[in-house]
Specification:
- The complex is a heterodimer of chains A (358) and B (374).
- Chain A has 8 helices and 20 strands.
- With 358 residues, chain A is α+β, with helices and mostly antiparallel strands.
- Chain A has a 6-stranded mixed beta sheet, sandwiched between helices.
- In chain A, helix 4 crosses helix 5.
- The longest helix of chain A has 17 residues.
- Chain B is an alpha+beta fold and 374 residues long.
- Chain B starts with a strand and ends in an 8-residue tail after the last strand.
- The chains are: A alpha+beta (358), B alpha+beta (374).
- The interface between A and B is large, with 35 and 36 residues.
Chain lengths: 358, 374
Amino acid sequence: MATLIVDRISKSFGKIQALKDVSFECKDGEFVVIVGPSGAGKTTTLNCIAGVEYPDRGTVYLDGKDVTMLPPQQRNVSMVFETYALYPQLTVYENLAFPLRSPRFRQPEDEIRRRVLKTAQMLGIDMLLDRLPRQLSQGQRQRVSLGRALVREPLIFLLDEPISHLDAKLRNAMRRELKRMRNDLTQTTVYVTHDYLEALSLADRVVVLYQGQVLQFDETKTVYNRPAAVEVGRLFGDLPMMFFDGQIDAQGQFVEENKQFTLSTEGSPSTVIPSVDVILGVRPADVQLVAPEQGNLVGEVYSVQNQFDQQIVTVTAYGYLIDAIVPVHTRVAEGDRVGVYLRPEVCFYFDRQTHRAL
Amino acid sequence: MARVILEDVYKNYGAAEDAVKGATFTVNDGEFFVMLGPSGCGKTTTLRMITGLETVTRGKIMIGDRVVNDLSPQERNVAMAFETYALYPPLTVYQNIAFPLRVMKLPKAEIHRRVMQAAESLSITDILDMMPENLAGGQKQRVSLARALVRNPTVFLMDEPLSHVDADVRHRARAEIKHMQATTGATVIYVTHDQVEAVALADRVLVMNFGVIQQIGTPLELYYRPANLFVAGFIGEPPMNTVRCQVSLGDGQLALTWSGDGQTVLRFDLEQVDEATRKALARHHGREIILGVRPQRLKIGPPQPATARGVLPGKLLVHEFLGKHGISQVQVGNLVMEVVSPPDIPFATDEPVGLAMDVGDLHFFDAETTNRIE
């Protein structure tokens, strides 16, 4: 059993507050992803769980035990910074056994063998034990690397941006490999990344961290479908969510701040009340291009980018640049006059002051 | 603006292998032409030869009507926008853009006119008085482009200009470049290793590998009719699924049997296969070929009987929910195939599924040469 509770941890480095009341938890065997832009405090949070840093305030509980001030070696957590970094002259077996041979662990040989085989089987690499790293595929090497962290049978598995340094194509492939492995990993895991795709793909629950604060902690789909704050909406999207300042008028309609367009709010997932300053958020994939008379906004096509199964059309309207993802057969060219239609169902509203969802 | 023609161009740095081998192609006037390939493939070397920063070992380069092999970059009147913006720190944005024109000793009124025109096409008229150190990355990029644009160059040459732009705003930076090119009608030759970028921007793409041109065509041509296995795998994300299989035509059927396990068979009724494909495959009857099918063209559904046409039996290994779409991995015989699917699918891990496809979506490549079979 390995549960993790992070309870209101705060940490400052001099004048900079890196973490402010960060709280979340992991159930036994759960895979939680902490996602946020660089500088959000993700690594600091992970370091506090590992014992590499100590928070100024707050508590870390591992399996119900307060470990906040315990050094790393007394916590039985295992941290992986980046994949690979395998010893090239050692076989897969020896690479996996290596951590168990360290002076601190001193395990008898048959115990080492048992643990190595168990970990190798779990990761599907038990038939590769005699190979050298150079004889392995990327995916296999990654499994060995993860295996090396798992072989100590830690309570909690911590991964700090393990695939961020790879180019896009390889990163996508490795993410899928991790997803496959994830089904076999029974360890409670905390995984840190700035890439929302990794959160969507791998997480049971997501912690969205921004400037040291938890903006949302929820199941993955809920974070995607009901972003709790502007920054969450902005983070979760292939093309980022677009935002417009405005107000809700007495009739409950959204009026853009310069009164250039209005939208009905009936059917929106958010609950709005009149006379409130708001921010409207909408995803490019939900924007529809229509005939000028049928749109909420009228603009001109600024550019068209081909993507085989869709097109990214950027429209300039009232001083805004609006991205729309449209089907590939839509005929549209730079300079065309178009209408932009935003269905209420895809419009999210956030409080202008707090940036929180309404 | 002008046409650019390369005829049988070679570059050798004194090594055994040529860095660029027999490059022959034409970039049309006003075209957005992208050179795409993995790092080290020769695309940057080719661009540098067009620019005049590298000498040509053999062959001819023409810009407009002139053979430019022996001309300096300035004499070629080409404009470069490379990775580093290299703005002059003590000059304002306006002065930065005006600089090349002052070097050319143009009259003041003409300089002002050109600077304002370039600033308008790149929407930077509001920052003309600012200093480079106070600009955001995207703004610096636009100033750099404006500075290249003012010289009314014959050709605009760009080498991975967006690699330092944050991934989440890269589509906006591409929109700017695309807009600039569309409104000015500039001839642009753009180098990138990113196939998403190439496809987003290009009128035509040239794909290169190991110094050799693999294919030149519109993005759609490269996607739907890749000339060889390399192009097929390089364009499109996730990459095309490929598998070696035995071809058999007979009994009114086309059967493709996995070489890896000798068991998995993909069947189609011959009457569903168009004549050209039938003829091409008939030449390989009884032999091995490489079959390719894109993840976007596969549909996951319930398992079908073994005799079903156009369906492969598989086991769902993993499904990724990615917001507006999903990616699944399915074990088919000894091969793992990737499928672009809806965000949620009604199947659980390890459940048997059927992968359906149209015969028209299949690609066939020669097992030895890896060239397209047609």
